[in-house]
UniProtKB/TrEMBL annotation:
The chain crosses the membrane at residues 71-91. InterPro entries: DUF3618. This is DUF3618 domain-containing protein. Keywords: Membrane, Transmembrane, Transmembrane helix.
Length: 96
């Protein structure tokens, strides 16, 4: 006994009770579908996968699968920077 009425086709003044009920049911279905989609987008596994893929695309060449040279340079620079910071801080404590 569905009239396949969409909410934009029905006004409260002109609709029958069954049309209003069908309109409400269809709206609830759309809202439930939207909520399911949003929950899927913010699920921790989905977020983690998206972050891993983003990180991989930053570091790895898509065509060849090799590591990008700028990623290697950034990694080496970071390691050297941290090492210099550690050496600098350890030398500072011995002077006092």
């Amino acid at each position: 006994m569905t009239d396949n009425v969409y909410t934009s086709d029905v006004t409260v003044d002109s609709a029958t009770p069954s049309q209003l009920a069908e309109s409400i049911r269809l709206r609830e279905e759309r809202i439930a579908d939207n909520i399911d989609e949003l929950v899927g987008r913010v699920h921790p596994k989905v977020l983690a996968t998206r972050a891993v893929n983003r990180a991989k695309s930053t570091v790895i060449e898509e065509e060849s699968g090799s590591v990008k040279p700028e990623a290697i340079a950034l990694g080496v620079g970071s390691v050297l920077g941290v090492a210099a910071l550690i050496v600098g801080l350890s030398g500072r404590g011995k002077r006092g």
